[in-house]
């Protein structure tokens, strides 16, 4: 279950740490503020982070597809495929919605954080740890509902809701100490 869950989420797990390492430069909101006087998204959401995150999330997904073309198990666990009805185009679409959805969820919550007056980097427990998971799930569900419901079963979802915050916090603490994150959350 753990292997299945992590395997399915890899294209969604990679983009955030990659954005933290490679992000920077022009903010997506162009530095603009809304009528509440606060930034639309803030300087923590950049084009470079978004594009690099999607690129590497998809790269990992494509490597997973390659692996599946050679063998279908990992530590004797049968691995799920990203393909809907064996079509590899559909697999690339699923990988894209997982990767983009995770960064979209993260951006959406930054938008929300700015509206409630939280500055860039201010912690919002639980939301910070799961926003990208819900973004990835929602977008993938909208685009590929059949694939989503047959792979993200209730047990897989429960495993991920427990595991993801632990993984997220530990990678952010590492990121903080190696200097790519400004805050350890
Ligand atoms: N990042 C980026 N572009 C993105 C997402 C993230 O460049 N689309 C980079 C930024 O350098 C950001 C870091 O990754 O500071 C960590 O992301 P996150 O914790 O989501 O951003 P915060 O700076 O905490 O901002 P926010 O309060 O909006 O979450
Ligand atoms: Mg943050």
Throw out a few tags for this protein:
185 residues; mainly alpha; two-stranded antiparallel ribbon; 2 strands; globular; binds magnesium ion
Can you walk through the features of this model?
The chain is mainly alpha-helical. The chain has seven helices and two strands. Strands 1-2 form a two-stranded antiparallel sheet. A hairpin with a 2-residue loop joins strand 1 and strand 2. Helix 1 packs across helix 4. The two termini are 27 Å apart.
Distance from first to last alpha carbon: 27 Å
- Gross morphology is globular
* Distinct small molecules: cytidine-5'-triphosphate, magnesium ion
Unreliable residue runs:
none
User: Count of helices?
Assistant: 7
- Percentage of residues in helical conformation: 55-70%
Using only C-alpha atoms, the radius of gyration works out to: 17 Å
- In which order are the strands of the major sheet placed? 1-2
Order of SSEs? HHHEEHHHH
What amount of the residues lies in strands? under 5%
Structural class: mainly alpha
């Amino acid at each position: 279950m753990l292997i299945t869950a992590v395997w399915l989420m890899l294209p969604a797990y990679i983009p955030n740490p990659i954005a933290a390492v490679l992000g920077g430069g022009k903010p997506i909101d162009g530095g603009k503020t809304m009528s509440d006087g606060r930034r639309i998204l803030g300087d923590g959401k950049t084009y470079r982070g978004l594009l690099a995150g999607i690129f590497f999330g998809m790269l990992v997904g494509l490597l997973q597809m390659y692996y599946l073309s050679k063998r279908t198990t990992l530590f004797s666990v049968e691995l799920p495929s990203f393909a809907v009805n064996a079509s590899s185009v559909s697999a690339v679409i699923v990988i894209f919605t997982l990767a983009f959805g995770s960064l979209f969820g993260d951006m959406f919550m930054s938008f929300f954080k700015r509206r409630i007056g939280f500055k860039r980097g201010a912690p919002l427990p639980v939301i910070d740890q799961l926003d990208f998971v819900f973004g990835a799930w929602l977008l993938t569900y909208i685009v590929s509902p059949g694939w989503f419901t047959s792979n993200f079963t209730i047990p897989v979802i429960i495993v991920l809701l427990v595991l993801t915050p632990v993984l997220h916090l530990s990678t952010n603490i590492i990121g903080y100490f190696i200097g790519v994150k400004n805050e350890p959350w």
